[in-house]
Amino acid sequence: MSESIYQPPKEIVSHALIDADKYQEMYARSVNDPEGFWGDAAKRLDWMKEPTKIKNTSFEHSNVSIKWFEDGELNVSVNCIDRHLPDRADQVALIWEGDEPGNDEHITYAQLHRRVSRFGNVLRNMGVKKGDRVTIYLPMIPEAAYAMLACARIGAVHSIVFAGFSPEALAGRITDCKSTVVITADEGRRGGKTVPLKANVDEAAKHALGIEKILVVENTGNEIAMKGGRDIWWHEAATGVDEFCKPERMNAEDPLFILYTSGSTGTPKGVLHTTGGYLVYAAMTHEYTFDYHDGDIYWCTADVGWVTGHSYIIYGPLANGATSLMFEGVPNYPDASRFWQVCEKHKVNQFYTAPTAIRALMGAGNEYVEKCDLSSLRILGTVGEPINPEAWNWYNDVVGKGKCPIVDTWWQTETGGHLLTPLPGATATKPGSATKPFFGVQPVVLDPQSGEEIHETAAEGVLCIKDSWPGQMRSVYGDHERFVKTYFSDYKGYYFSGDGCRRDEDGYYWITGRVDDVLNVSGHRMGTAEIESALVAHNKVSEAAVVGYPHDVKGQGIYCYVTLMAGEEENQDLKVELRNWVRKEIGPIASPDHIQFAPGLPKTRSGKIMRRILRKVAENDFGALGDTSTLADPGVVDDLIEHRENR
Ligand code: ATP
Ligand code: MG
């Protein structure tokens, strides 16, 4: 692992919202006096009724219950829109950048208010009431934001399904949360291609239970089938509809949304988030993690189909009155310069993306970055997977020119917002480490066998959280037992993240991968992230995934899937070279038993490597690959099976 440490640049520290001393002081208060700390934090929102009860939470296995601000009342859309109108009606709330360069739109807070209100009234006219579930299956167009905020305005619970998902995956999610209304578009656009969204919904409707109405936004204008009595055009339903929509009074613990996890480790879970705590946490983390100042242009490249899009494109930024950029396209269309062109065009100050995109753009070559003017960039962020130090350094040197702190944010759909992250003006960073906890977050490292907390600073084991924070999920929708079993049963009294980690002598946290993926080779426990990072550090390797398989002598053997940089030749000599490389980087214990060259790796639609499938392939067990509905390209798996290493 990398030894380097980067101090926050002076220019950042001098203007930062939080510096190192303030972080220490606020962190101490947040854990010693959570009621006081979060009671004050709640004041960042406008409440219809101020909360007097702040925290009421229990991780006790027999009685898991999480409530924050439980007697408070508020409306999320009012907090994200209406309350900004007196001061910033004409400020841009959303910059929309289309799939085709040149296609964009600036939406002010005043416009957002009118459009969301109209959307809310359309939904109300369709019979949608407080508490009803609405499935949103939209591309990254402004209507996706309007639909989310309109649901929040009228108290409906949205469940967004990423528009790249198949009809089967969509049907499963519609049925699971019993939603009777689906909002979609005729088609979506991504990377110069169209996606048949309405046709997918039609297909899903054959399998899903209970769909009554489908609201269709006209986007590409291409011909689609509409079914009388069920399908409604948005523009027809919105004609003549009032531009004021009375916001629903919501209790802080009323549901805001359901979102299914990415399915990296198993069948997706319907994660339930509620109103008050979630918004306090999303807003506060957005402000401090990105050191967001009034007037900054902030861009998170995620899709609203993921939690990152919920918390850090829509709810956090808009609650803070920010200008948030929403991008319809992909990193490599029309070419690998697109992200950087968009940064230049809109003078982006904070840029937040995923390691999968960073690795891909690193593989494409520096010239795509260097031809753009990135001088507006101040903060860079990453989320979704451990970031290999190699990719971190490239992000820092080539994109940030060594001037932009990198915030490596570790969190989950379940956590609502960042749990481990540097703060730009406060935390020295180490490439590959998510560094330190956010306010109110008490991470602990447990011994995986005994379940005991390891108190020494330097530790390795299972990452759990000791006490609740306001953004925490409240339940698995419709299945509280699954919630308790998944997160509170293996390690009693703690929230179990499912991830493994190492804490170094400075108290920095390093995510080593999923606990399910941890290798045990001849009695040595190893995270997949470390071996993968060693492989990616080799100049011919662009991506790597490592899994274990049963080994007669060692217990588990190490099987590596390696994607080479463009133009590199796959041959036996290179396998030997890579094996020696890993031995040298980590040690003989980590020496790969098998290396398979893989032009593509199985990834979820959000770009995460699905190691559970790779494990099955390495184990020669192709019969039971498990839930593959969230896989981006199922064809990759056949190719891997065909070219697997014989054992
Ligand atoms: P499922 O829970 O269905 O298997 P998932 O865990 O991929 O899917 P998400 O909630 O989207 O669903 O992802 C959260 C996980 O992503 C974390 O538990 C962690 O494994 C990984 N992750 C996210 N951010 C980081 C990061 N900065 N560093 C390391 N790992 C990260
Ligand atoms: Mg998970």
Key words describing this protein structure:
21 helices; nucleotide-binding; AMP-binding_CS; binds adenosine-5'-triphosphate; 647 residues; seven-stranded mixed sheet; binds magnesium ion; Acetyl-coenzyme A synthetase; eight-stranded mixed sheet; ATP-binding; AMP-bd_C; alpha/beta
List the helices and strands and how they pair.
Blueprint: H1 10-15, H2 20-32, H3 34-41, E1 55-58, E2 65-68, E3 73-74, H4 76-80, H5 85-88, E4 92-97, E5 104-108, H6 109-125, E6 133-137, H7 142-154, E7 157-160, H8 167-176, E8 181-185, E9 188-190, E10 193-195, H9 197-207, E11 213-217, E12 231-233, H10 234-237, E13 250-251, E14 255-260, E15 270-274, H11 276-289, E16 297-300, H12 307-319, E17 323-327, H13 338-346, E18 350-353, H14 355-364, H15 367-370, E19 379-382, H16 389-399, E20 406-408, E21 443-446, E22 459-465, E23 475-476, H17 480-488, E24 495-503, E25 509-514, E26 519-521, E27 524-526, H18 528-536, E28 541-551, E29 555-564, H19 572-585, E30 594-597, H20 611-618, H21 635-642
Parallel strand pairs: 4-17, 6-7, 6-8, 7-14, 8-11, 11-12, 16-17, 16-18, 18-19, 19-20, 29-30
Antiparallel strand pairs: 1-2, 3-13, 4-5, 9-10, 14-15, 15-23, 21-22, 22-24, 24-25, 26-27, 28-29
